[in-house]
Specification:
The protein is an alpha+beta fold and about 375 residues long. The protein is built from 10 helices and 10 strands. Strands 1-4-5-8 form a 4-stranded mixed β-sheet, covered by helices on one side. It is globular, with a radius of gyration of 21 Å. The structure holds flavin-adenine dinucleotide. The site of flavin-adenine dinucleotide (FAD) has 22 residues, from strand 1, strand 3 and helix 10.
Length: about 375
C-alpha cells in the first residue's frame, strides 16, 4: 500500500491551498455576513480547473482523478465552506452525470461551460415532500411535440439562484415507480416557464444560494433528456455516491480550519499565567480532533481511490461522508469550547465553522441514510 500522493495530486493540493489562503480565506467571514454570492472567486476557481477537476480537457475540465478533486475540495472548504459546496455541486452533481450519461453533443454544449468555470451548474432532486425518499417526487415531464413539458417545484437546490444549467430529476412514467424517473439537462435561460422561487435563509454556508426551482408548463427540447427515459433513479444513485466524497471533503476542510484555529488560539491565549495549550484538557481535545480528521480523510482517499480505479465505492463513500461530517460537527463544537466566550462571538471564525459544519450531516443523504446504505452493504455482502 502506498500512502504517497502523486506529483499531480500534490500539485493541485498545493495550488488549491495557496489560492484558498490568498484569495478566499480573507473574505470568508464577510461572505458569511453578507450572504453574497462569490462570483469572482467562482470564476477564478474555473480558471484554475477547480470547477471540472475530473472532466477531460476536451470538455473544459482539468482531466485529473477523483483524489485530486477530494484534496482540492478540502483546501477550498477549509477557507470557505460556501465556496466548497458551490465547487462540489458543479463537479459532483452536475458535471458527473452529464459526463457519464450524456452524448458527445450534450457534453460539448452543456458540460464544457460548467467544467471550464464559465457558468455554474446545479442538481435538482429534492422536493417539499421528497427528501430522503426522492422516489416520492411529484415533478413531471410529459412529451409534447419535439420536446417535453415540465411541471413541479424543486426545493433546497444549491446554486439554484445563480446557476445557468441544471440536471433535473422528474417523473416521466408514474406507474413505473422509481423506474419511471428520468433526468433532463436544463438550460435555465432558454426554458420558458421556469423561474427561481424562494431563496432560503440558512444557519450556515451563507454565501451559497439554496433556492426553489419552479417549472410551470416549462418546455424543454427532446435533446435535453439525459440517457434514456426511466434511467434517472439509477443515475441519481451513482451521482450521489461521488457527491458524498465531495461533501465528506468539505466536512474535513471545515474540521481542519477549526483544528488549526484552535491550535493557534490555545498557544496564544493565556490563563493562570500560561498558554491554555499547556492544559491537558485542551491538548486532549486537539489530539482527538487531529486523529478523527485524519481518519476521516483516509476514508475519503480510499473512496476516491476506488472511484478513480473504477471499483464499487457506494459503501466507502457513505462511510467517508458519515465519519467526516460527524467529525466536523463535533470538532467545531470542541473548537468553540477551546475559544471560550470568544468562540461564541462573530469576531472569531469558530462559530461560523460550527454553523457551516451542520449541513454536512444533512445534505446528499442524511447521516441516518448513510448508516442505512452502509448497513445494507455489509449485511448483503456477509
Ligand atoms: C443547504 C441545503 C442545500 C441542499 N442542496 C441540495 C441540492 O443541491 N440538490 C438537491 O436535490 N437537494 C439539496 N438539498 C436537500 C437535502 O439533500 C435534503 O434536505 C436531505 O436529503 C434530507 O431531506 P429532507 O430535508 O426532506 O429531510 P427528511 O427526509 O424529511 O428527513 C427528516 C429526518 O428523518 C430522517 N429519516 C428520513 N428517512 C429515514 C429513514 N428511512 N430511516 C431513518 N431516518 C430517516 C432523516 O435522516 C432526518 O433526520 C439541500 C438541503 C439543504 C438544507
Amino acid at each position: 500500500m502506498n500512502f504517497e500522493l502523486t506529483d499531480e495530486q500534490k500539485m493541485i493540493q498545493e495550488m488549491a491551498r495557496k489560492f484558498a489562503e490568498r484569495e478566499i480565506a480573507p473574505v470568508a467571514a464577510e461572505l458569511d455576513r453578507t450572504h453574497a454570492h462569490p462570483a469572482e472567486i467562482c470564476a477564478k476557481m474555473g480558471e484554475l480547473g477547480l470547477m471540472g477537476v475530473t472532466i477531460p480537457e476536451q470538455y473544459g475540465g482539468a482531466g485529473m482523478d477523483y483524489i485530486c478533486y477530494a484534496l482540492a475540495m478540502i483546501e477550498i472548504s477549509k477557507a470557505c465552506a460556501s465556496c466548497g459546496v458551490i465547487m462540489s455541486v458543479c463537479n459532483s452533481l452536475y458535471n458527473f452525470p452529464v459526463y457519464t450519461y450524456g452524448t458527445d453533443e450534450q457534453k460539448l454544449k452543456y458540460l464544457r461551460p460548467v467544467a471550464s468555470g464559465e457558468a455554474l451548474g446545479c442538481y435538482g432532486l429534492t422536493e417539499a415532500g421528497a427528501g430522503s425518499d426522492p422516489a416520492k417526487m411529484l415533478t413531471t415531464a410529459v412529451p409534447k411535440g419535439d420536446g417535453w413539458v415540465i411541471n413541479g417545484t424543486k426545493r433546497f437546490i444549491t446554486n439554484g439562484n445563480v446557476a445557468k444549467y441544471c440536471v433535473l430529476a422528474v417523473v416521466t412514467d408514474r406507474a413505473a415507480g422509481y423506474k419511471g424517473i428520468s433526468s433532463f439537462i436544463i438550460d435555465f435561460e432558454n426554458t420558458p416557464g421556469f423561474h427561481v422561487g424562494k431563496v432560503e435563509e440558512k444557519l450556515g454556508i451563507n454565501a451559497s444560494g439554496t433556492a426553489e426551482l419552479v417549472f410551470e408548463d416549462a418546455w424543454v427540447p427532446a435533446e435535453s433528456l439525459l440517457g434514456k427515459p426511466g434511467e434517472g433513479f439509477k443515475q441519481m444513485l451513482t451521482t450521489l455516491d461521488g457527491g458524498r466524497i465531495g461533501i465528506a471533503s468539505q466536512a474535513v476542510g471545515i474540521g481542519r480550519a477549526a483544528l488549526e484555529a484552535s491550535i493557534d488560539y490555545s498557544k496564544a491565549r493565556e490563563q493562570f499565567n500560561q498558554p491554555i495549550a499547556n492544559f491537558q484538557a485542551i491538548q486532549w481535545k486537539l489530539a482527538d480532533m487531529a486523529t478523527q480528521l485524519d481518519a476521516a480523510e483516509l476514508l475519503i482517499l480510499r473512496a476516491a481511490w476506488l472511484e478513480t480505479n473504477k471499483k464499487p465505492y457506494e459503501k466507502e463513500a457513505a462511510m467517508a461522508k458519515l465519519l467526516a461530517s460527524d467529525t466536523a460537527m463535533w470538532a467545531t463544537v470542541e473548537g468553540v469550547q477551546i475559544f471560550g466566550g470568544y468562540g461564541y462571538c462573530k469576531e472569531y471564525p469558530m462559530e461560523r465553522h460550527m454553523r457551516d459544519a451542520k449541513i454536512t450531516q444533512i445534505y446528499e443523504g442524511t447521516n441516518e441514510i448513510m448508516r442505512l446504505v452502509i448497513a445494507r452493504n455489509i449485511i448483503k455482502n456477509r
